[in-house]
Design a protein that fits this description.
Helix content is 33%, strand content 14%. The mean pLDDT is 89.
Length: 202
């Protein structure tokens, strides 16, 4: 999933704001703008083509039967001899996990991103799904990709104000791991940057 940003019109100031980064689609109203940046694919489809693409998608924690969705996710991961970091970005396996959530889910699970899906114990795969559901609920509630739990009021305010304070490993190449102090690693995988802690996720 690509990165999305939604902004609301300020009381005073220029509107709309200038695009930031590689904006592929901008949805604009008099009071709000949503920018789609860096998608893997960006096409204009007919309604029929769009539905055909939707029908190919894996389960989404916000849509459909939660029990059936979890079972589809577990089955989709555990039958593949593909690195879990790649499976989490495969929209046929699970809908909506983008690069931020991929890195953060794997760190929160202390899971090596290169472990093949079929080698992961079922309870680990289920825990990943439950954490994804949890993080999505936080995202819906806050409007932010906030992946650090149990923050003090001061840390939460900082995280809401700055993207740099919202994540464990994402976009933190070379910075110390927030848990063990090891420099966060980054490598291209599946055409996207993967971030992880080489110690906590060994």
């Amino acid at each position: 999933m690509s990165e999305q940003e939604k902004l609301e019109a300020p009381v005073d100031g220029d509107w709309p704001p200038e695009p930031v980064g590689q904006v592929r689609v901008r949805l604009l109203t008099p009071t709000a703008v949503a920018d789609l940046r860096g998608p893997t694919v960006c096409e204009v489809d007919t309604p029929e083509q769009a539905q055909a693409q939707i029908d190919k998608l894996g389960p989404d924690p916000q849509v459909g039967d939660p029990v059936a969705n979890e079972e589809r996710f577990v089955a989709g991961v555990r039958k593949r001899n593909v690195a879990i970091a790649l499976l989490l970005m495969d929209q046929a396996v699970v809908s909506g996990i983008g690069n931020v959530y991929r890195a953060e889910l794997l760190f929160r699970a202390r899971q090596n991103p290169f472990t093949p899906g079929r080698e992961l114990p079922e309870e680990v795969v289920r825990a990943l799904w439950h954490d994804w559901v949890h993080l999505m609920s936080i995202g819906v509630e806050t409007g932010q990709m906030l992946t650090m739990d149990d923050l003090s009021p001061e840390d939460l305010a900082r995280a809401m104000a700055s993207r740099d304070d919202r994540h464990w490993v994402y976009h933190r190449t070379g910075l110390p791991c927030r848990v063990c102090g090891t420099p966060i690693a980054m490598q291209e995988l599946g055409g996207r940057k993967l971030y992880w802690c080489p110690v906590d996720q060994a």
